[in-house]
Specification:
two-stranded antiparallel ribbon, 7-stranded mixed sheet, 286 residues, alpha+beta
């Protein structure tokens, strides 16, 4: 059962004393996008706050992990993610064209294992958010991180934000790479008004134009979503490109016209409707 809890100051992974702060976005991602001495801001409560560098506390979760879990134990996840994100950067257009990410191309020798490690990197991020927001973490997820079973209770989906692709490419021609890292608010629905029991938690994580959406629920299992296990174990992941604009039109548009085109492309899709759009029907069927 997923429920609201009171965080006790112990590591959500192993239950040892929490002494370590995980980065909300990977430190290497922040440096790659903004540099070691960035001219960057963090938006909190609609206010911009200057970031002094990649070690800023603004870029980290509270202390919800112990040092061992945040370093040695999860190091294979970090290595796999680094390889994954470098591939994503270099092969964006191919991914858009094919509509999928092929982990056999990223990890030719051990694609099955390394794909799971990439998922574990994202799961670690999600769990840090859950712990930081006093939401319980099911044992099945801990087991997955420990390599004791297949992923349960969390559905991860990837999208490519074509509107961000268009804007970043346009701005790069005028100035330096504008960069973009974003974490959505964490949303959830309880079983009833005033209840501590939670039906589903959801949010997303954006690296430049790559968006990872996640849904955490007790109902996220094979029996309820036939194909869930196969989806998680497959060495390919489908990627949906959203907010597409005619490339022949793109170069001729002014900034205002481009903004209007993007707004029009978004009309049928909203972050406020993530559950309806992604879980209203079985998302795992081929």
């Amino acid at each position: 059962m997923i429920k609201r809890i009171q965080f006790t100051g112990n590591c959500w992974w192993c239950n040892d004393v929490a002494t370590s702060r995980e980065h909300r976005h990977k430190k290497t991602d922040f440096i790659e996008v903004f540099g070691k001495n960035p001219n960057a801001i963090v938006i909190r409560d609609e206010k911009g706050i200057d970031v002094q560098g990649p070690k800023s506390k603004l870029l980290k979760f509270p202390k919800v992990l112990c040092h061992s879990c945040n370093t040695t134990k999860s190091q294979p996840f970090d290595y796999a993610y680094d390889t994954f994100i470098k591939y994503i950067q270099k092969n964006r257009d191919q991914i858009i064209k094919n509509g999928e990410i092929d982990f056999k191309e990223i990890f030719p020798d051990n694609s099955d294992k390394q794909k799971q490690n990439v998922l574990r990197y994202y799961i670690k991020h999600i769990c840090c958010r859950l712990a930081s927001n006093d939401i319980s973490i099911n044992q099945e997820i801990i087991d997955f991180l420990n390599g004791k079973g297949n992923l349960q209770n969390i559905y991860i989906k990837f999208e490519i934000r074509m509107d961000l692709v268009f804007w970043i490419e346009r701005l790069k021609k005028r100035t330096a790479d504008p960069g973009n890292l974003y974490i959505s608010p964490l949303s959830y629905f309880t079983k009833s008004k005033g209840s501590d029991e939670i039906e589903v938690v959801y949010g997303f994580y954006t690296y430049r134009w790559l968006k990872m959406l996640y849904f955490y629920s007790d109902k996220m299992i094979e029996n309820n979503y036939p194909g869930y296990t196969k989806y998680n174990l497959s060495t390919t992941i489908p990627v949906q490109a959203l907010y597409i604009i005619d490339p022949n039109k793109y170069e001729t548009l002014t900034d205002d016209e481009l903004s209007a085109e993007i707004t029009s492309a978004r009309d049928n899709y909203s972050d406020n409707n993530l559950i309806k759009d992604n879980l209203g029907t079985n998302p795992f069927m081929e």
